Amino acid sequence: MLKKLRLKDFKSFVDEEVSLAPLTLLVGANASGKSNFLDALQFLHANSFDLDLEQILNGEPRASPDAWHGLRGGAPETARLGTSRFTIESTWSALLLAFDPRDLTPAQRFIEQPPQGHPIDLSHRMTCRTVPQPLLEAERLTDREGRVTFETGVVQGERIEVPVPPPLFGEPSEPETRLLSAHRSPLLWLHLAARSGEIVLPSFALSSAFTQIKFLNIQPAAMRGYGRRGAPLGVDGSNVSGVLAQLCDEPDAKQSLVDWLSEFCAPEITALDFVEIKELGDVMAMFVEKGGKRISARSLSDGTLRFLGILLALRTAEPGSVILMEEVDTGLHPTRIRLLLEYLETVTREREIQVIATTHSPVILQWLSPEALRSTLVFGRVPEREGTLVRRLGDLPHFDEVAQHTGIEELFTTGWMEMAL
What we know:
The protein is α+β, with helices and mostly antiparallel strands.
């Protein structure tokens, strides 16, 4: 889980640091910096790929559906206007793997071995310049006690000094450094090039945390076709019928899904059924209404499909996942927002995942638990200060007192939150 994030000269941020909760909503006016905040997390996520900084910021040149498209604005607009470098610091509660890496092949280490072990707090800092080309200037990883896992040294042209970690097993050896390309983070190299092929466990834990950042962008139009059992849910919600069919093979899971949908939908959903084309392996979800009418996924409303996509994405996310969403309440009737918030708070607590989402709806704040409400982040721009300001709602002056007497909706619609920054 992401516990803290500090952004220095990143897009609209001068220097802001905030703590995050398992469910963290981002509120603020348009162009106040909420999407820039999510872009910083997308940047960290992309550093778990085999990409250099040029590709991370500007996108991959190959034109394919799964190509990385870069950050909004690309390298020229990643560093704050008037600056040429940015720093992102993050603190994570990650899983320190418990297995002996000598017992596994490289493929097993990354593909077959599921994350397991005990939580460890890690602090990561990364400084990059953006002109004349994107380059890494410094990177550092420490644990809760401040012990350094790795810290890059001096930049020499387009290369950077990286210390070779001592072996985890066997005899210690003299410390040494390598000159690596400054065009990318050394995190992947630390996995693969530690002595004797052994994994540097804290680095692996951090890179695994970066990998588990997912940007969910549910698109109802992508959810109306046939799906396939065993295939994952797409970040746009595609293959919803296949994922539903797979989950409904377990009676308890099926009943739980029916229960959530029956509360959300009108007319009430009483059962789930499926039409399967055995020769092709394709499946279409059928929603049985009270009274027996059967509706396919092709005919469901956009709002129902969005709710279903969010429900399934969080239901199938790996523990430790950080799910990012823009406008989490889009297409939902105000009376159904309560159900969405109930699900978000339940699933983040029970499945140990994290949700960070933007919203412009005052209704959504009204249904938050007191703890989640106080953890909501408020973004704003004020004339007296340069750049985006961000604060936890519970840290604003006199928030509890004002909210009790005025009400959350009025604080939201009158701009009190932004003024309190």
